[in-house]
Every structure is written in structure tokens, then in C-alpha cells.
Amino acid sequence: MRDRFALIQQLGRALMLPIAVLPVAGLLLRLGQPDLLGIPFIAAAGEAIFTNLGLVFAIGVAVGLARENNGAAGLAGVVGFLVATQGAQALVRVPPEVVAGLTGTALDAAATSYKIKAVAKIGVPAGILSGLLAGGLYNRYSELKLPEFLSFFGGRRFVPIATGFAGLGLALIFGFGWPVLEAGLDGLSRAVLSAGDVGLFLYGLLNRVLIITGLHHILNNVAWFILGDYHGATGDLKRFFAGDPTAGGFMAGYFPVMMFGLPAACLAMYRAAKPERRAAIGGMLLSMALTAFLTGVTEPIEFTFMFVAPPLYALHAVLTGLAMVVMDVLGVKLGFTFSAGLVDYIVNFGKATRPLLLLPVGAAYFAVYYAAFAFVIRRFNLKTLGREDAPVAVVSTQALAEQGRGGGFVVALGGAGNIRTVDACTTRLRLVLADNRAVDETALTALGSRGVVRPNATALQVVLGPVADQVAGEIRKALTHLPAGGAVAVAVAVEEPAPATAPAPLPDVATVLAALGGTGNVQTVEARATRLLLGVADAAGVDEGRLLSLGLRGVARVGSGRLHLLLGGPAAPLADALTHAMARG
């Protein structure tokens, strides 16, 4: 079950690579329109991307899923997509009524046109499936070794071949199964679109709820690229840019929330913060609010209260669903290529229906979010930014200058030995670790994390905002430049408020030393915030199970003879006790 969930999460991440292409497509398409620059070739360039979205998804999903995002998987995705769609086009049967009364060239043209339009309806799903096949086959067969006389076709060269044959299977399904697929797609579209405001409310609500797992991208792809049909353009987003006056309902409701509601939530959190903490959090909240207003990227804001204040997040999800309904009732149709921010609002203003109504609705949403968040935070004493009781970690400027941000993340993630894969989507790192219990969340917060999600024991997502992909690159670079021991040290200074309760008792020092293989096995002991950095002569002599039974939060092996013990509290007292015990022999 966990493996299936992890695969779905990987798909959600991989979908963001082709979706990142949409802003340039939408920008070119809009700038070329008569109401803006009126330059046909620019509009045609943008339209070309929308027309070939299936191919874009085939490449993007394949590369996003493949180990190290290898481009060979993208080539395999193209092969699979072309085989699947062209093969299906040849197999699709044309209904008799489509060609009734036609002969010769007219009959051939009508049949070909029907087949092209039929396959175009499933372009994006076919692209996603082709990308899934290509990425999966790359991960499985990219190191395949064949007999010497066939060795040229081994390894990565085998992947496009295998994907091509897999594409034949898709062609058979799409071609012979087209009547069933068409009926299913039309039935799904009619069911969702006929649900009206109820459907829109549920879509907005579920979209925010699924952000917790990162699966909202899959829900969005159904709404934006599959539902409905307007002269061959399917999906709310594609129909909007194709000129469908009924499209935009699955996008319009995001604008009041992202441009006005969440910035107001930031203001409410700032005003509710402790006076002595406002200066420290004000710049961060302002930056997140501006990012949401201008670009529609809201995850950094949402993760600041998603886990520490679940009632606020439930309220936010409900208000998002209501925004969908309000904009639909008012007849507002707005669209975007990236997200519901000011940039998309201005660029697509000319294609929208009643776009000026966003301003009064946005003002109302600003007031509602501010009042609701301010009341709920104070009424239930929620620990939003600036109201925390826990220590706030700050990575020293000197440490960052010496180690860099990538090195800081490596040690916060449990060291190089704990990191298996590093990927990123729009706003979050997506990592596979040996053990996510070895992660130091305090240090991650100091490095800019807005929150973490643990889908299972080895997966970890770190919400950073739009810099996530850049940080992923810095982590990979740090991993390739590690010293032989495999560890990177970063000094973390912790601002400790007066403890409200007595500190947790130390585990028995003699028992800890015994679990570490005895006094003679421990060579060095250092304290780093809530973890101990240990050097041992023989790592095999360390009993991890016994250490965990003493109440430690985790044990991470970060290189030959190097261990990190995660304590969940200040590490200095245990470090001092171990040092004294070792000195006594």
C-alpha cells in the first residue's frame, strides 16, 4: 500500500515539470491576440504548445519519474506517445453517420478528421500514461546488460525500444476501446459539470485538503485538461484559452483566495504574534504574502499553519470551496496558465468574463480571512508563527558562509548516508531517506522550511516555496563534494526561551556507552542543538535498537565511523555526561 501511495506521489511531482511549460504557452498565446499585440505568429507559437500538450506531458512525466531525471526517459516517452496515439488513430472506427453520403476525397477527409479529433481528446491522458511507462521502464532497465552481439541495444538504449512495444498496448486499448473511452469521458464531464456549485465546492475543498499529500496535482489535471469539450479542446484550462465562454469555473475561485485571502491570513498571524517576535517574522510573512498575491504560490503560507493549527486549515479549505461557488454564481470566468496571481489576472484579463468583479469579491475575502484567522488564533490560542513556545533555530551566518545552504540541508536531513534521492516540485523538496526519523526539523526550519510531510518511513517532503528546485540542486552539489567521512557539519545556534517544564531526564550514561560499544569504541562526542555527533572506532559495535529503547528519537549513520543521535531535546547535557564518563574510563 505504501509503495502505491509513493508511486502516486511521484506522479504528482512529475506532473509539475510539464505544467511549468504552460506559463510561456499562455503568455505567447495571449500576447499574439488582436486585443494585445495582434501578432499572429506569436499566438501560433503559444497555440502549438497547447495543441501538443500530450507530447509535452509524455516527456515531462517520463523525465520527472526517471532516476536522476535522465533525458533518455524523455526520448522513450516521445516514442511511447507517438506509437500509442498514431496506432490508436489507425484503429479507431468511424461511426457511419459521420461519413454518411460522402464519397472519395470527402469521405477520406471526414474520416481522418474524426480520428484526429478523437485521439486529441485523450492526448493528455495518453501523454501521462506514456510518461509513466517510459519512466518506470527506465528505472527498471536502464542498466540492462544484453549478450555481446546485442550489447549496443542494452542499458539506456533498450528503454525506448521497450517503451515502443508498451505503446502498442496503449494503442490497442485506445483504438479498439475508443467507444467505451469516449462514453466514459463524456459521462465524467457531464456528471461533474452538471453538479454545478456542489461540484465546484467539493473540487475547491478537496484541492486544498490534498495539498497535504501533494496529490492535488492529479485532481487539477482531471479538471484542467480532461473535463468538457469545446471544438476539440478538453479541460477547463484548454477550453478557456480556446475561447469557450463557459470555461474558467475551475480556476476563477482561486483568485480571491490566493490574491487576497491568504495575504490577509499573513497579516492576521503577524498581528497575533508576540510583540517581541513581530520583527523576526514580519519580513518572512510579507515575502510569502507578496508571492501569493503576485504569482499564486501559496504553499509556504499554508504550511505555516497546516499542522500547528488544523482548525485554520479546515477553515481555509472550506473558504476555498465557497470561493468557487461565489465566483460561479456571479458569472465570473477567469483563467491562468500557472496559478491565480496578479500576473495571470492581468495577462488573461481580456479573455475573462466579468473579471472586474474579482476586486469587490477579493476585498470581501480579505476581510473574512483576516477576521476569521484573527479570531480563531486568539480564541483557541493557536501556535502560529510568532506565538510558538518551542525554541526557534537560527543558522549562523558564519556557518552558512562556510558550508553553504546545500551542506546545511545535508546535515539537517541526517547526513549524506541518510539521503537516497533528492527531487523537487514547484514549492517542496521530495526526498527518499534511509530513515526520516533522523531528520532535524529545528535545523530545517532554520534553513527556511515552512513545514514537513512524512508520507511513510522513508519519504519526506520539505516545503520551501519557489526556491525548492534551486535548493535541491544545491543539496546534490553538496553531496558530490563531501569529504571522505560523508558528513557536513553546520553550526546551529538556538534561541532558548525559559522552559515551561523541567527538562527530560538524561538516559543512563553507562547504558548509552554500552550501547555504543563501550568507552573504548567512542572516539569523539560533539553536541549540535538536539543531536549528538559521534565518532566511533567500529560502527558495527553500535546497538541501534538498544539506543532507541532508551528514548532517543533516532540514530543516523552518516559515514564510516560517524553517527548522529537525535535526542528531541538539548544535546549538550548528555554530551558533557558522556565526556566525563569517558574521561573516568
Automatic annotation (TrEMBL):
Species: Nitrospirillum viridazoti CBAmc
Residues annotated as catalytic: 425
Organism ancestry: Bacteria, Pseudomonadati, Pseudomonadota, Alphaproteobacteria, Rhodospirillales
Location(s), subcellular: Cell membrane
Protein name: PTS N-acetyl-D-glucosamine transporter
Keyword terms of this UniProt record: Cell membrane, Kinase, Membrane, Phosphotransferase system, Sugar transport, Transferase, Transmembrane, Transmembrane helix, Transport
UniProt cross-references to PANTHER family, sorted A to Z: CYTOCHROME C-TYPE SYNTHESIS PROTEIN AND PTS TRANSMEMBRANE COMPONENT, PTS SYSTEM N-ACETYLGLUCOSAMINE-SPECIFIC EIICBA COMPONENT
Gene Ontology CC annotations of this record: organelle inner membrane; plasma membrane
Membrane-crossing segments per the record: 12-31, 37-65, 72-92, 118-138, 158-181, 248-273, 279-301, 313-336, 356-377
